[in-house]
Amino acid sequence: MASSTSSPGPFDRFLHWLSPDRDKAVQEFEEIRKKLTRYFALKGCPGIDLEDLRDKTLDRVLQIEERWHEYPNARACCFGVARYIKREYDRRLRPDPIEDYDPPSPSPDWPHQEQELQCLEKCLGQLPEDDRNLITRFYEGQGRQRIELRKHLAKEHGGAGNLRVKAFRVRAGLRTCVTGCLTERMI
């Protein structure tokens, strides 16, 4: 009978990369597994996902065997891959961005609508010109036109994040001013 010798699989080759001595390789593998679990725990992943993330990391390491030579050792490879697995995990958890909320206009039968509009005009007039220009342009247009206007504004103000922060601050100031104005008129 001829003996059939099969070539070692990716896991066996990984163990051999860890150490030519099988017992030492298995010990090193268990140590890597523990450290990967701890890595994901320290990065804030919930306990139910720790083993799954660890196993995905090790599976991915086995899949990139042709790139093992790029790493000084197996641990470096595993933790390099773990960083990418963590990024993928974070992207999966990131909620979809919320569109800017435009509160509905008050109904026409709202008794203080005229007073509120007068206070808003007064408060807009008290804003520095740059802030007034920003907030009025921020709310111009509808649909696609508004999107394009905001893209242009974002370029002018250092990005979408900066634009939203500036608009938020101007709105907060306006809200305070309008509330104060309405309170004065109702007294």
Features:
187 residues, mainly alpha, 8 helices
Describe this structure as you would to a colleague.
This protein is mainly α. Helix content is about 70%, strand content about 0%. It contains eight helices and no strands. It has helices at about 10-20, 20-40, 45-65, 75-95, 115-125, 130-140, 145-155, 160-185. The protein is elongated. The mean pLDDT is about 85.
Sequence-ordered SSE layout with sheet pairings:
Blueprint: H1 10-18, H2 22-42, H3 47-63, H4 74-93, H5 113-126, H6 129-138, H7 143-156, H8 160-186
Helix pairs in contact: 1-2, 2-3, 2-4, 3-4, 5-8, 6-8, 7-8
Outline of the structure:
By secondary structure, the protein is mainly alpha-helical.
Largest sheet: none
Low-confidence stretches are: none
Nearest-integer average pLDDT = 83
State the total count of DSSP E strands.
0
Report the radius of gyration as a whole number of Å: 30 Å
Tell me the strand percentage band: under 5%
Intertermini distance: 105 Å
Determine the number of helices (DSSP H or I, runs of at least 4 residues).
Answer: 8
| 3D shape | elongated
What is the H/E string?
Answer: HHHHHHHH
Helix proportion: over 70%
Structural class: mainly alpha
